[in-house]
Each structure stands twice: as structure tokens, then as C-alpha cells.
Amino acid sequence: xxxxxxxxxxxxxxxxxxxxxxxxxxxxxxxxxxxxxxxxxxxxxxxxxxxxxxxxxxxxxxxxxxxxxxxxxxxxxxxxxxxxxxxxxxxxxxxxxxxxxxxxxxxxxxxxxxxxxxxxxxxxxxxxxxxxxxxxxxxxxxxxxxxxxxxxxxxxxxxxxxxxxxxxxxxxxxxxxxxxxxxxxxxxxxxxxxxxxxxxxxxxxxxxxxxxxxxxxxxxxxxxxxxxxxxxxxxxxxxxxxxxxxxxxxxxx
Amino acid sequence: xxxxxxxxxxxxxxxxxxxxxxxxxxxxxxxxxxxxxxxxxxxxxxxxxxxxxxxxxxxxxxxxxxxxxxxxxxxxxxxxxxxxxxxxxxxxxxxxxxxxxxxxxxxxxxxxxxxxxxxxxxxxxxxxxxxxxxxxxxxxxxxxxxxxxxxxxxxxxxxxxxxxxxxxxxxxxxxxxxxxxxxxxxxxxxxxxxxxxxxxxxxxxxxxxxxxxxxxxxxxxxxxxxxxxxxxxxxxxxxxxxxxxxxxxxxxxxxxxxxxxxxxxxxxxxxxxxxxxxxxxxxxxxxxxxxxxxxxxxxxxxxxxxxxxxx
Lengths: 253, 311
Hints:
The complex is a heterodimer.
Chain A: H1 3-19, H2 21-43, E1 49-50, E2 53-54, H3 55-86, H4 89-93, H5 99-128, H6 136-160, H7 164-180, H8 193-199, H9 203-216, H10 223-247
Antiparallel strand pairs in A: 1-2
Helix pairs in contact in A: 1-2, 1-5, 2-3, 2-5, 3-5, 3-6, 3-7, 3-9, 5-6, 6-9, 6-10, 9-10
Chain B: E1 6-16, E2 22-32, E3 36-40, H1 47-55, E4 62-67, E5 70-71, H2 76-81, E6 83-86, H3 98-108, H4 115-124, H5 140-152, E7 158-162, H6 170-185, E8 189-193, H7 197-203, E9 206-211, E10 214-220, H8 221-228, E11 230-237, E12 253-255, E13 261-267, H9 272-283, E14 288-295, H10 298-310
Parallel strand pairs in B: 3-8, 3-9, 6-7, 7-8
Antiparallel strand pairs in B: 1-2, 1-4, 4-5, 9-10, 11-13, 11-14, 12-13
Helix pairs in contact in B: 3-5
């Protein structure tokens, strides 16, 4: 294992977070605060409780997940797309570094960034509403696995994208709608039966449900199904990345 | 030459791009340890494709490349660690500082941090003062130097310089060649492509000429200059001639349009014709005021060879 190479990529990617501190840290904190103002204070005052949890507290896991998903995808996709765009990818491709190590460096950094953002949102939310974490280990497991799997997805999208528009399409048109419709701000049991079934096709439902369970022990679906779904999603992403590197898709001609 | 003395061995290397363009056609080439090898060729000849295939950036379809007797794909960890590449395009992370991007390159090639060594490289390339500048703020020439520093950061044994002096001013260019000479003195093998053929003429030990994906010639530079180089003898006449005398027709000689000069072209390795010509001019009572000789440059040899291929 070429550890110095993994470390070099990781540090290089994390330094981008330092350079864009406002965008990386302050921006998610501001948007979370706005969500609390709009959904917590304005709308939440009209919704009493969901499954015995106040509405403001109820949306915290969903808000964290929403940020984790979008941050993971955008960080990882930008991380690999920018060297492709600038041409500096030649250095990674000509270095004595395996596909696994390249992925670990880029995806590890992207996942770390989104976990940091998730933690900041959790701390910010704690200023507004009371939060309890019933199962800290599971909470951490969901957080890390979700960040990893969506960073892998972002990495794939960054390799696939051959222009800036494509890079922006996936987070805007796929990830954000799935996250909003995945139960970030409501329990799927509040939906009519038909839409409850349709919603189950949304993979994000399982992530948010499992993550919320680790906080309040309330879940829309079984926690084991949630963790299995993340596992399946993770495996699909890993297989796709293996195929990309095996064929050199959009990286080596 | 035994295999161990050839640090790079290329056998039957071919490349077809997806659009059907055949960029390389069965290239065979050995690069000797410690030499400076200049690869010349017109635009689109296949120089960059060849370099990128050796470095692992472009997939190999046919043929094989060995670096230090190791297969460049199967043993990629060992072989790539030996190579530093300075690409043709000015490609680097725009918002990073010079120091961080060079440190990144060193780490990427599996080397632990070595601040004194990185400082030495940056100083040798006159980049130390700019170490905290972002790449964005540097001139084209300085960016080129950063790419060289990045390529040297992991102490490679082989350096590929793909058009290293493109867009670089004369002073920087000379400094850069000084670095190249220093690298050669340190035992580093250097493969360069350049459009400044006079630079190849000055610095290279061997010359390879590639055209339309085929390596059409590989020679010691001195031998190439001697074998393919021509000399031109210009004789300035005292009285202009109206036409070339019949007696001079056996020589490869031309009369200038104003009739004041005779230009005799001869092979470098066979200059016996000069004395015969001068004797003949005396016997024909053709008087001359001055004689001047000029050798073919590598550029003229290169253009001549490429044109011959096209015919």
C-alpha cells in the first residue's frame, strides 16, 4: 500500500476545504439555521409532535442526512473532476498508485469533509432544539457509511462528467429531490398508503429512517433493512468504480 | 548493447484511438541509461502518445514497454516510481501554492516529506522565492518550471520533457537546459521532445525522428549530422556569369539568379569535390573574391527527412 500517496491526495483535497472555509463550513451552518427558522419555527409551531418527538428535533437527522448526501456527492465529484478539467490528472495516472489508493485518497477526503459538516450541523441544531442520541454507535455507523457511499457516487459522477453542466446535474436533479422526498422533513407514515409504497423505492428513505432511529428509536423501516440498503448501495458503487478503473473509462484513452 | 544498459525498451508499440486514428505504428526503441534522447517530429506525429503510453497515461493496445527490465503495466509501482513527466500542457492545480503542489507530487510517488530536498529543487529552478505563491499568479515560464519541479520531486531516474521550453523566454530556457545538463551529470536519463530543433542539436546524445506514428530514424546525433548533413560552398564571383559553364555541370552546383554566386552542395563525409571544383574554376579563368561554407542544421536534416517520408 502506497500510504504516502493516499496521505498526499487526502491532505491536498482537505486543503481545498481550508481554502474555501466559508463555502465548506459557514454555508451549511447558515442553510441549516434557515431550515430551522422555516421548518422548525414557522411550520413546526403548527405541527405538534411526530412519533412522540417535537417537530424541530424530528427534522435534525433528516437535515444532517440532506447535507451529508449533497456535500459528499459535490465534494467527491469536484475533487476528481477538477484535475480532469485542468489536465493535472496526468500526475495521478502516471504515479505508482493503485486504483484502491486513488479512491481511498479522494473518497476519504470527501467523506471526511461531509462528516465534519454533519457534525457542525448537529452542533448548530443543538442550539435550537433538544437532541438525544439513543444509539451513538449506530448513529456514527450510518453517518460514516452514508458519507462513504455517497462520496463514492460523487467520485463516479466526477469521472463520468465531461463538462461543468453534467457535474451540477446529479446533485441538483437527483440527490436533492431524493433527499427532500426521502422523509427529511416528515415521517413516511404521514403519506397516503399509495405514496408510502412509492416512497420505498427511494433509497434515501432507508438512510434517513435508519439515521433517525439512532437518535429517537423511531423508524419508517427496519434498521436492519436500512443498513442492508446502505451496504448494497456501497457495493454497487464499489463495483462501478472497479469497472471504471479496469476499463480506464473517461480517464485513460 | 545488453538489455540492462537500456533503461527503456519499447517493442512493437501501436496505438489506435477510438476515432480510428492510428497514432503509433509498431514503434521499436531502446533508450540508454544516462543519455539525453531527443524525439523530434511534426505536430501529431505521435510523440506525446508514445510518452504517455510509457508513463501509463494512455492504454497500451499492442506491444510492450519495459522500464529497467520491468514491465510498465505489470510492475507499475516500481516502473512509475522511476519516471518523472513534464507534460506539454501547463497543467497544475491553479489555486495551490508552489510548495504544496511540489510536496503533493513527492507524496504521490510514495516518497516521505523531505523539505531540504524540495528546497534544493525549487532553488535550482529559481522558484524558492515563489514557493508561497499560488500557481494562478505565475507567468507561463514559471508555471513550466513548477511542472519540472513536480517531476523532479520524487527523485526519478528517467525524466520525460514534452516540449519543456514551449512559451519560455530565452533566459529561462537556457537556465532550464542547465538543469537538464545537471540531471544528466547526476545520471538521470532524459527523453525530450522539442520544437526548437537547434536545442536538440546542442544538448542531445541521440536523435529519434517520428512521423505519422512511425519512428523513421534513430541515430547518434553526431553520426546523423555527419551522414545526413550537407555542406554548402558559396563562391562569390568577381564577374557575374550569364549561365553555368558546361564543364561545371557534373558538380551539384547552382548559379544564383544574379550570376554573382556559385553554390556547391556536397556531402560532409566526402569533400574531395571542393579542390576539384576550385581547380576547374581556375582553369576556366573564372575569378572569385570570397568563399564561404555553411553546414546543414539539424532542422534542415529533419525537414528533409520528414519531407522524404511524405513523398
